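Workshop exercise sheet. Pairs work together: one partner reads the sequence aloud, the other fills in the structure field after running the prediction. Swap roles for the next sheet.
Pair: D.N. / O.F.
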Amino acid sequence: MPSDDFRPVYHPAGHDAELRSVVQELRAGRWLAMRNLLEATPSWSAWTRRTQVLAAVAAGTDTVRAWRAEEPHSAAATAMHARVAVERAARAHREDHPQTRVWWHEAWEACRVYAEQAPDDPVPWVGLLALAPLDREQRMPEHRLPPPGPMLFPGPWALLEQVAKRDPDNREAHQRMLQFVYARSPHGALPEAVNYARWAVSSAPLGSPAHVLPLYVRAERYRRERGQDRALDLHWVTDEALRDGRAALHDWFDFADPADSSLLDLSHLAHALWGAHEFAEAARVFRTLDPYYAPVPWTYRIRDDHGDTAQGAVELYLRARSRSLEASGAP
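Structure field:
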């Protein structure tokens, strides 16, 4: 029986122990550990993931500005300046802040400047992709280019191509494209998102986090329908849902390094397998997640009349984890 004392922990760095330590330093307003970590980061995949996490933490502080003042020629500091500018513009957009357009322009310029300074880095192009949803009416020509295949949509395909030239399997770029789809067509986006996920998976190598994309789209559909109808639980046990979960398990998870994996990807996979009653396989993912946890997509199953959505998501996660570990015979 799984221990009743277990409680999951959320941390944006997940299993990346070095990044967790740097996040703690950053929250205290210190940038030296961030610089050292980024200078030692071994791959574009880790670089993209780490700069994204650090930007989310740094966006509410002046720490990156202080770093750039001390080391104005640091490429890593310039990268983080662009990252933070994008994060702030995106937050302003979500909050409908009156300064959104100003911050959007500043972030766009910061990405362009950094792209010229670091031509091999995918991050400035990922940043430009992250800004694309702010162009709600697709007024910018680069956001309405013809798609590379049938059943796809006009969009920022050249930006995605620039990322792919530098990091062909960039996880965040695919996630940003899904965000663009949802912003582009809020009420009719799900078919376009399904088509994009299928397109991305069709060329993704084994071990690619792109294999998890169909699970994100499936969870988004569930969220939009609010999960209020219990019949919607059948959504997770259809043959197609089961294929999506098993494909993500065998084509991504079986090759994944937990330290380099997104908690969100792991969480979506655990949720999908548990929802499909593939408890033994779900247990493998829950054990990999331990001791960490991501609230999404568990929050999508919590009813609006629940007093505490966050606590409800944790309770549901614990029940799903316990059921899966019991079925697998795990201690």
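Discussion prompt: The chain has 15 helices and no strands. What would you look at next?
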